[in-house]
């Protein structure tokens, strides 16, 4: 089965690498399926995302494919300031409209012509993928974070029709609920799905437990939460597809104004929670502050939780509310798990195709309708098989089953899949099998998204079957070969990079080489740097050093501020520097001598020798010396 993983190449939200994080979460299981021969995998992404993915985990290199030069130029033209106009252009791509959709469809047609595609896996939504796949009869599988996040058990969902309001899951759940599915009627209590995770030791985020938080004294809540009935209102990001595509509201202000009028008329006050991600983009922060200022001015009795509020305070406020009112935030589903009724004012992945909205409406503050059974059934209908625990998705063949479903045009989640044993007793889920191939080491950023133990922030470790310390390297014609099984090969090209080898420094008792370089073709930082001693790998990770001067001197560079590097050298003797790209090219085999100074020359083999280069190098605006030294002559 030929799988194309479409790592969104279109630059969105002021970055080329928005979808690298999902790759950290699902990339390992895709690699393991490919290693086991279950799928033939290609991962298509823009050059910047490819560089970051390749730098974080070398095992992805055989799978990564990148745009042609002409396609990269087109992708670069789509990078614009993140504002209303750019978001409107992005929504055209999501909906499958306009020239931007035609551009990305052409890329898909090229990839399909090079190697026929059986199924396309992507994160979130892309109209070019959807229209191309429909025309070619190719299956599509959309991935997205499920509506439970830490400190709740984290989940994914994978759907053939789309995400959020477009997902086939919504209709499937509705059918189960209306048919009185034995798995959901009678259901277990919603809170029971937290049973096993609540017994896991060593997790400070659950002290007190999620089940105890509503009843446990929270010092931060004293004097903050209202002493009369209130609703809990979590805001969503202004540029979230949930807001833009699956609701009647065009901004947080429109949602909050309409909701506050509704709850005030019914005799409630409100506790309002800003979105934790709003501060990461000016566009979202400005619109959220606009909404919060409006609420504070017109409903001064409403409580706005501080941005510094800990998870325990937010969960405590939510669990003690009469209702949670949201457009379609994941917080709504988490509220249901804790037994709090939810008013969903948009199309939500967890609403059972409108079943939730039909059964739960805002009652007056002096009324106390019982929605317990509806909540229990709705939670059970999702957690038993629709929302897969992240650890299950990463360690079993669940994703393989869903890919096969998509390739065969089957949208339904198989009935034999059952996550109840995992949630309720800690046993293995039914209907899925553990993967036979080993996973990545614990702490690998490709698995966890966090820095590996012992690595400072900004370091780029190599993991899995990629280059390892002490591995042998050889040159075979115009190819640089790492001897690992399977062999990793890089095509050597002349004058591939430009930059400067600037200084050798002493830190923490060791020697390090510092400098900067950019890929001449993409004008972006390299994927990885490696130093060799003899024909063996000495250092296989580097520190990324911020270089705003490089970005200023080369405004055409992509992520030029990350062009600086610091990499370890041996305490004495000679070392060689390899500079690698994400698409399998090598632009340097240079000789470095420490600690006396820098000796660099292009070489045709791994033999020693060279001429001295004084420390200091060239400035960011010149970059001539490194471009002459790196490459084949």
Question: How would you describe this structure to a colleague?
Answer:
The chain has 633 residues and is an alpha/beta fold. The chain has three domains: 2-137, no CATH class; 202-373, Rossmann fold (3-Layer(aba) Sandwich); 473-629, no CATH class. The strands form five sheets. It has a seven-stranded mixed beta sheet with strand order 3-2-1-4-5-6-12. Helix 11 links the parallel strand 8 and strand 9 (303-304). Helix 5 (98-114) packs across helix 6 and helix 10 packs parallel to helix 11 (282-298). The longest helix has 17 residues, at 98-114. The relative contact order is 0.11. Mean pLDDT is 81; it is low at 200-207, 440-466, 593-619 and 622-633.
Low-pLDDT residue intervals, each spanning 5 or more residues = 200-207, 440-466, 593-619, 622-633
Q: What is the terminal-to-terminal distance?
A: 42 Å
Described by strand count, sense and barrel closure, the largest sheet is: 7 strands, mixed
Please state the average pLDDT score: 81
Total strand count, please? 25
Structural class: alpha/beta
Shape: globular
CATH class of the largest domain: Alpha Beta
Percent of sequence in beta strands: 15-25%
Tell me the number of helical segments per DSSP (H or I, 4 or more residues long).
Answer: 21
CATH arch. level architecture of the largest domain: 3-Layer(aba) Sandwich
Count of the separate structural domains: 3
Compute the CA-based radius of gyration. Answer: 27 Å
Helix content class: 25-40%
- Can you identify the CATH superfamily of the largest domain? Glycogen Phosphorylase B
Oligomer: single chain
The CATH topology of the largest domain is Rossmann fold
């Amino acid at each position: 089965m030929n799988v194309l993983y479409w790592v969104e190449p279109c630059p969105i939200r002021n970055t080329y690498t928005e979808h690298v994080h999902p790759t950290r979460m699902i990339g390992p299981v895709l690699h393991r399926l490919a290693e086991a021969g279950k799928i033939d995998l290609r991962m298509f992404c823009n050059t910047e995302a490819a560089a970051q993915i390749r730098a974080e985990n070398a095992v992805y290199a055989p799978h990564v494919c990148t745009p042609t030069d002409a396609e990269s130029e087109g992708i670069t033209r789509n990078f614009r300031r993140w504002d209303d106009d750019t978001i409107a252009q992005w929504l055209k791509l999501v909906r499958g409209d306009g020239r931007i959709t035609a551009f990305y469809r052409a890329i898909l047609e090229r990839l399909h012509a090079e190697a026929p595609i059986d199924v396309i896996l992507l994160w979130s939504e892309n109209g070019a993928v959807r229209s191309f796949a429909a025309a070619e009869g190719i299956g599509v599988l959309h991935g997205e974070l499920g509506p439970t996040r830490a400190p709740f058990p984290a989940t994914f969902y994978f759907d053939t029709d789309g995400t959020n309001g477009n997902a086939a899951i919504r209709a499937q759940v509705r059918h189960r609920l209306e048919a009185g599915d034995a798995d959901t009627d009678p259901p277990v209590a919603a809170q029971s799905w937290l049973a096993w995770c609540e017994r896991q030791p060593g997790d400070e985020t659950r002290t007190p437990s999620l089940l105890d938080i509503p009843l446990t004294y929270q010092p931060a809540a004293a004097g903050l939460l209202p002493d009369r009935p209130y609703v809990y209102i979590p805001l969503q990001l202004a540029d979230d597809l949930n807001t833009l595509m699956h609701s009647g509201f065009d901004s947080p202000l429109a949602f909050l104004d309409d909701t506050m009028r509704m709850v005030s008329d019914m005799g409630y006050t409100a506790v309002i929670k800003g979105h934790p991600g709003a501060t990461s983009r000016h566009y979202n922060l400005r619109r959220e502050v606009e909404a919060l200022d409006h609420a504070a001015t017109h409903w001064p009795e409403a409580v706005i939780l501080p941005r510094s509020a800990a998870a325990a305070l937010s969960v405590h406020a939510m669990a003690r509310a009469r209702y949670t009112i949201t457009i379609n935030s994941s917080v709504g589903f988490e509220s249901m798990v804790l037994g709090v009724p939810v008013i969903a004012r948009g199309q939500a992945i967890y609403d059972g195709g409108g079943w939730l909205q039909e059964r739960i409406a805002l009652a007056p503050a002096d009324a106390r309708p019982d929605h317990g059974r509806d909540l229990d059934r709705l939670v059970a209908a999702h957690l038993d098989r629709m929302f897969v625990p992240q650890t299950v998705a990463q360690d079993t063949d669940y994703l393989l089953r869903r890919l096969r479903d998509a390739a065969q045009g089957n949208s339904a989640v198989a009935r034999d899949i059952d996550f109840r044993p995992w949630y309720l007793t800690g046993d293995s889920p039914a209907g899925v099998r553990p993967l036979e191939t080993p996973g990545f080491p614990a702490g690998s950023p490709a698995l966890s998204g966090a820095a590996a133990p012992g690595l400072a922030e900004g370091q780029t470790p190599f993991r899995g079957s990629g280059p390892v310390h002490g591995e042998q390297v050889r040159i075979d014609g115009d190819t640089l070969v790492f001897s690992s099984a399977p062999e990793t090969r890089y095509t050597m090209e002349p004058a591939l990079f430009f930059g400067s080898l600037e200084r050798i420094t002493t830190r923490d008792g060791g020697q390090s080489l510092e400098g900067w370089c950019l890929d001449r073709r993409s004008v972006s930082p390299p994927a990885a740097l490696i130093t060799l001693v003899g024909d063996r790998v000495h250092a296989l990770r580097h520190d990324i050093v911020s270089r705003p001067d490089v970005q200023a001197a080369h405004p055409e560079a992509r992520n030029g501020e990350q062009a600086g590097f610091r990499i370890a050298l041996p305490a004495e003797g000679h070392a060689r520097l390899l500079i690698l790209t994400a698409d399998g090219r090598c632009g340097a085999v240079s000789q470095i001598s420490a600690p006396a100074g820098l000796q660099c020359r292009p070489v045709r083999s791994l033999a020693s020798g060279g001429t001295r280069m004084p420390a200091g190098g060239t400035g960011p605006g010149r970059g001539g010396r490194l471009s002459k030294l790196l490459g084949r002559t």
